[in-house]
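Hi F.,

I've been meaning to write this up properly since the lab meeting, where we talked about keeping a consistent format for the predictions we share between groups. The idea is simple: the sequence comes first, exactly as it goes in, then the structure tokens exactly as they come out, then a line or two of notes. No screenshots and no reformatting. I'm using this chain as the first example so we have something concrete to point to.
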Amino acid sequence: MSSTFGTVFRVTTFGESHGRGVGAVVDGCPPRLALSEADIQPQLDRRRPGQSALSTPREESDTVRLLSGVENGLTLGTPIAMFVPNKDQRPEDYSAMSRIPRPSHADWTYEAKYGIRASSGGGRSSARETVGRVAAGAIAEKILRERFGVEIVAWVSAVGSVEAPDLTGNPMTRSDVDAHPTRCPDPAAAERMAAAILAARQASDSTGGIITAVCRNVPAGWGEPVFDKLEARLAQAMLSIPATKGFEIGSGFAGSRLRGSEHNDPFTMKGGRLGTLTNRSGGVQGGISNGEPIVFRVAFKPPATIGKPQSTVDVEGRPVVLEASGRHDPCVVPRAVPIVEAMAALVLVDAALIQNTRA
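Output, unedited:
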């Protein structure tokens, strides 16, 4: 099923960008977990549009409603349905583009696959679909935090050519990340990133970026060998996020330029447990967590919808000049931070529950 993710902790998202609403159904959540809308809403607030001058002006409160699976504040072990209504949808913004496949969008590929596509806002290919992921991820995070002590923190580490220093060893919190609208916790780099995003907006253009994430306190032994390696599941999860174009874990592509003697992670004892002196493996070896922090990066392309005129063709192949309307982010990475955290949580909670079956 193309809209379902997970093996034991399974999430199905639903809804289109300019339909009545979006949401998710979570199956496989353990029973007797204390859960309310208040556990889910904070992450949705971090993802929602209209947060600052750096994001789309679309106004959505993204208020979540729990429809099933919870009684008297506790999960029942049955499917948890969550719904977020769309309040500020404007399908009319897309009427002039209904016969023009937008450059680098999924308009043409969806029509080629299904013979039909949502006429406004990209439908299921829109980042609006990620509301359901973030809601489900908030539940996964609560399980990871309360039952396993796992903490996930992501931040913007690059916007265009502006890069922040390596912060993976810093004990930062989400409050540190949210201190600046760019969600970059390095103040100097954050200001340069904000300037780059605003410059792209003023030029009716867009810019890409990179998000770095650290998953702390993940015990050794999570993840399956061969085809369901932990980093493979993380890569699948991250590359399923709209606008992603790259994933790397640990040393990533830079590690390919090192020799084995430079790259290997020697073992040592850390507080009575086996650990590694370095973490070029990014916390995963042989597809299984090794007890070190899991560190990965996700690359996001520049948003495809821009205000600049673009020469393209319509579905009949006739040349046209497209000037896109609608409300869009000049850079998606500040709002994508909670999405990356959510998808990491969904992978890790699934790995944790699978590992628990071996106990």
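Notes:
Residues 4-356 form a domain with the Chorismate synthase, AroC fold fold (CATH 3.60.150.10).
Residues 130 and 241 are 8 Å apart (CA to CA).

If this format works for you, I'll send the rest the same way.

G.
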